[in-house]
Write a structure and sequence with these properties.
The chain has one domain: Aldolase class I (TIM Barrel). It contains 6 helices and 6 strands, in the order E-H-E-H-H-E-H-E-H-E-E-H. A 6-stranded parallel sheet has the order 5-4-3-2-1-6. Helix 5 links the parallel strand 4 and strand 5.
Length: about 140
Amino acid sequence: MKEKTVIVHCLEDARIALAAAEAAGCGVVLASAPGAAGYAGVLWFRELLRAAAAERPGVAVTGLLDCGDKPGLVLAALGQGLPALRFTGPRKVAARLAEICAAEGVELVTGRLKALDLGAESAPEAACRSWLSGP
């Protein structure tokens, strides 16, 4: 993933991230919170992405759904229109999941994620503008 990543927890967070990306003239990866596939669901995240992207059609946005360490959630998310999934489980399992995801045209992201978490920010708009416009 080349674009900077912003962790979003709701539609308002996604709106903030896309507005900041538009102002900075860049694309953005909207990532769900850790493990969100398990408690919020694949369809919730997919629809959040669609709604936010529809409001800012000029911004290049990619979605990254975090499935935590649950391989079943990765498999369940395949075929739901998401371009990228995150898995934090064992490397051996990740290697097999990466093969399966690649066959479906989905990127599997593993390891540490460098991202701005809007849920941890007291001033999310300013933090997002700074994150996306910085080096």
